[in-house]
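2024-03-11 09:14:02 DEBUG pipeline.ingest accepted 1 chain
2024-03-11 09:14:02 DEBUG pipeline.ingest length=134
2024-03-11 09:14:03 DEBUG pipeline.predict start
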Amino acid sequence: MAVKKFMYVNRKAPYGSIYALESLEVVLIGAAFDQDVSLAFIGDGVYELTKGQNTEAIGQKNFSPTYSALGDYDVNKIYVEKESLEERGLTLDDLQHLVWEDEDDDWAEKDSIRLVSRAELADVMAEQDICLSF
């Protein structure tokens, strides 16, 4: 039986709703069960990956450091929509540096984030077996 490709599409800001945290938890669970997992960040979802999040003022736990563990779960296909970043005045430099270790390349660290256009992301989404939107 072929492994199905799962894409988790993150559209919401990281705090103010449960969507971002729920997506991250589902991704980690799926990856733990050897699913072929990828993530897409579009719209306000790009804020989920920003550096230096501080949630003290809103009284919520900052779960953003958990994204750095994705590579340990072999989640290394993280797509960020270029237009969504630009529309929010962000660049790739504003995002966390997420990496994975490639055992086929002497454990070299490689970037997990792939900056793609809307059209490119649509093509990637069309290749998935299942897309879940959060």
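2024-03-11 09:14:41 DEBUG pipeline.report The first helix runs from residue 19 to 32.
2024-03-11 09:14:41 DEBUG pipeline.predict end
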